[in-house]
Amino acid sequence: MRITLLGTGTSQGVPLIGHPNEGLDLSEPKNWRNRSCAHIVSDGAHIQIDAGPEFRLACLKFCVSAVDFFFLTHGHSDHILGMDDLRRFCDLRGGAAIPVWTTPEGKARVEAIFPYGIRPRSERGYVALEPRLAEPDATLACGTRVQTTLLPHGPRFRSLGLVFTEKKSGQRIAYFTDCSEVPDEAVALARGADLLVIDALHRNPHPTHLNFEKALEASRKIRAALTVFTHMTYRADYARESAALPPGVRLGYDGFVWEDGVVSED
Ligand SMILES: [Zn+2]
Ligand SMILES: [Zn+2]
């Protein structure tokens, strides 16, 4: 089982446009963050989670060559606006639509933004998407089990928390982005995962996202073999914040690869 983080930045990306980005070492490539999304290869299938504005560029840079299944955690622009570039993956599937599992809000946003793409097969080169409501517990055609839970993303919004279990290895990856809390049900679902990827904006508190302290608290409860932070702002300098994290927790970066329990160090 392999996951590649295609983006690890917050909604505006990192660094910020027209901003001094004080405290951020811009000579460190790990501080240049696309909007958050990830690609998993499990039981031989390619599973894409979210597609932000840099999705196409990230696919080229990090060698994503197929998408069989798509999970949209929620309909915010930093997670949805790259979905039109799934058209190339439709072509590679012979024109068959890509199944998209999401929340009711995510489904409505997909249908509103890409009305021309809601079809079983691509026509005239358009993307073809089949939005569906994510089930709490489902098994993909490849054999991978996908369990979902709704995570509070501020007081009025919910995003989809995802736990993938590879059939052939039994390995489990939990992906909890864009959340302001990790409820007990989500902790139970992810407990003891091989890898937890979790929203961790920066040190300061925030109304709609976990900060480092709250992400660490969730990480201690979940007790994954490795916890990796994502969705970070310019305030999270890679070297400075990495040095302050406890064992078993680290900052993600664009191009971070975890495969069968091993992180590919570059
Ligand atoms: Zn986001
Ligand atoms: Zn969001």
From TrEMBL:
PANTHER family the record matches: HYDROLASE C777.06C-RELATED, HYDROLASE C777.06C-RELATED-RELATED
Organism name: Candidatus Spyradosoma merdigallinarum
Record domain Metallo-beta-lactamase: where: 47-232
Name of the molecule in the record: MBL fold metallo-hydrolase
